Amino acid sequence: MTAEAGLAALWLAAALAGLQLLLAGLAVKRGEATLLGAVRPVAIVQGIMALIAMGALIAVFCASDMSVALVAENSHSAKPMLYKFAGAWGNHEGSMLLWVTILGLAGGAVALFERRLDERTLIATLGGQAAIALGFYAFLLFASNPFGRADPAPPDGAGLNPLLQDPGLAFHPPTLYIGYVGLSVAFSFAIGALVTRDVGPAFARAMRPWVLGAWIFLTLGITAGSYWAYYELGWGGWWFWDPVENASLMPWLAATALLHSVTVLATRDGLRAWTVMLAVVAFSMSMIGTFLVRSGILTSVHAFAVDPERGAFILALLAIYIGGALALFALRVGTVRAGNTFEFLSREGGLVINNLLLSVILGLVLIGTFYPIVAAAMGTQLSVGPPFFDGTAGPIALVLVAVMAAGPLLRWRRDDMQAVLERLMLPIAATLFAGAGVFVLSSKPVGALSLAGLALAAGLAVASVAPLWKRDLRRAPLFLYGMVVAHLGIAVTLAGMAASTTWTEERLVAARVGEPVQVGPFSVTFEGVNPVLGANWSALEARLAVQRGEDGATFYLRPQSRFFANPVTNTSESAIATTLDGQLYTVLGQPDNAGRWQLRLWWKPWVTLIWLGGAMVAIGGALSMLGHILRERRATRRAMEAAWA
Amino acid sequence: MRRWLLWLPLLALLVVLGFAARELMKPADRTVYSAMVGQPVPDFALPPLVPGKPGVAAAEFRAGQPRLINIFASWCIPCIAEAPQLMRLKEMGVPIEGIAIRDTPSAVTAFLARNGDPYRAIGDDKVSRVQLSLGSSGVPETFIIDGQGKIVKQHVGDIRADEVDAIYQAWRAAR
């Protein structure tokens, strides 16, 4: 019954999206007030209907209703409640439903809250949202119905992949989806502005919170996903340049560029056509990401259930939306007036360089990710791995970091070379000092990229806080703090990447009970293996006594080799000790027949900085968003007061 | 800016989508073939495994006679299914060199007694070193080697009854 209600809600939402598109089209064409007024309520109800459908799916998952085919294929009655709940989106159909639900809610939110933008542009935007939603509703209803029944119903379900039975599942996919969908709103704004030829600061200010919001969630999603892969897969790596990771990185790169160019448009009314282009590119990257993940066209650690037919469906949607948007861009952008100009040495100039470098990195990642497909068409099978990405994107990212350090210290419109160099003295000194210090003091030879990374991280850290120098800290605007924290976060992440790459120590040993093994500053003693039992798994658990240095306190780590019965799978649960200066990472392997057990031990100095920095970047984004919203509110209030007076 | 430049992004998108669509339409052949196909066999000499049968050395392959290298193991179920086809190839006059992967003499002797013995020689590859150097990732696999010791074809998986002719023709063509 719940399943049928959910399906009905989904059909209704689809019908409302159709109505929304039709009304918006007519309204924009005729400009009638009654038509314009009808679009907002429809958008809001469409969002509510999608939410009801998602709620119904979560309800059947929580109730373990095995007569619903999707539940039977992906859930099991013995699964802990959290994973029944999160399992609703731990599969293809459910995740696509989550996608359209967030899309519908975002459209509803635009309809409810956006008051500053020109009404026709806003209605055109809502029309764009409806067009996107319609395609995805069709995809769900015709190619991936989540509410189909299994007849006869099986006695119990097939279970959820144990790698997904982790709290990370509850957060990682929804955060990324919110990010993707936020970019779809930016895309719709761009379409709306192109349709009504209204590209200017008002459009940029309306779009900015969505870009910023999407970017915050993408940052969180990527950071959390990286940490999840790091501890759950047991390989000890935090980034693999896997196609699906790239699928989340590419929208992030585009959104980062968009975030900076939209600021130029909102503040200085410059970079008009470029900002519109970036909004289109950012959403195309999220759709390409969805396509790569869902079609299974590239082999990846994210081996979702794949289906070429569904891939073809998404590919068709991609061609329609992005192709349509790019065609509209080519036709209309000639009519967009050139915005304000600026000199090369200025804040705008710095942001243009930032945008170009980000675009180049985006292009490299895109080429690396798609090259296997192109090569396959030429008849060669190959995969593109870390050596390509590290070697090409790495150096450019470092140049970008250098520009990032200088950018916020530049003035808008024009600046003076002499003055800029004076302001940059301290960061440059910090860079040189840190580089020389690492080079001289390091216990191991440091690679060129890592050395440059560590040095630049120090320079960037100093430069990031510089905009607050000599300012009244209480009166500095919140969005300035946001930028400072976010840029500092990048410095922290960069330092973590370079340091852990350089100083990581790895030991792979066949351990006998009682024999200590040295890894980094730790002495690890294997004390034996015990069986343990979990809610839906059993495991062999090693007991490792760990001591730091000669006279540190002893503590215990317990890595497990887990066995899940539904479905039958073995996983290894790493055990990690986090200290201020890094992590000790332990994995239990197989026994040999002579009473020894394989142990894999890593000492990863400063590795935690990577995710700490990621979190700081997201927090900085949130501060900045809050700051902008507060300022907009104050401006509106002042305008109203002025109107009264 | 020139007008036609504005259409470039759309063109780029269509090219990428075209490649993606092409890849999507292709039947999904996930078989990864060895990069060694078309290359000379890497040099190796494997010791004999069962009494009365010589080992396998790459040096012999350059003596002018094309042959098959069959990578197998007594613990491999598809190898049992493949055995009758190998016997037929042997009767058709194809010399077959066996490379036994991670195996023991007694197990291989029993395997040959049960399923027939198509091999001219059997080399003992205890740790899969030669298997990996040939670019083979599993058992059974069959390589066709021409008279100059070059790998001309790789067959991944067991040889089915209807594939015997194609293998035989490829062997003849390798002369």
TrEMBL record, chain B:
This is DsbE family thiol:disulfide interchange protein. The keyword rRNA processing does not apply. GO terms for molecular function: disulfide oxidoreductase activity. Pfam families: Redoxin. Residues 35-173 form the Thioredoxin domain. Its main location: other. GO terms for biological process: cytochrome complex assembly. Keywords: Cytochrome c-type biogenesis, Disulfide bond, Redox-active center. It is found in: Cell envelope. Belongs to the thioredoxin family. DsbE subfamily. Coiled coil: none annotated. CDD domains: TlpA_like_DsbE (cd03010). One of its GO terms (cellular component) is outer membrane-bounded periplasmic space.
